[in-house]
Amino acid sequence: MALPTSPASSWLQRTGFPSQLFESGRDDYELYEEDGEFVLSVEMPGFDPAEIDVTWDDGILNVAAEHEDQNRAERRTYHRRFRFPKSVGDEEITASYNNGILEVRLPVSAGAATRGTPIEIDA
What CATH number does domain 26-107 carry, 3.40.50.2000, 2.60.40.790, 2.40.30.160, 1.10.10.10? Predict the structure, then answer.
């Protein structure tokens, strides 16, 4: 059996699978650490703040949204999970939504160390 040589979106159209299942590398967010907190900015234009759910569970931030446009009979969904390597002050997490950008601030707990085991690099 020969492997496809064309882009995934074109050969997947013939199989009936939605091509978005296999897409990766979306640049719809920015994540950085500054002044003792993580800052996550997610581009979510067209959503109403009431349509967005942000939840925190044991080091994982979940961002989900659903929007139905009755006039166009279309439905848009968004779902993404972010894992954080340091302890975060659960009670101090804040979120705001302005001009289509969701911003979540996650304060790093005092004295928190990155979880994991150091891996030695061979030269």
Answer: 2.60.40.790
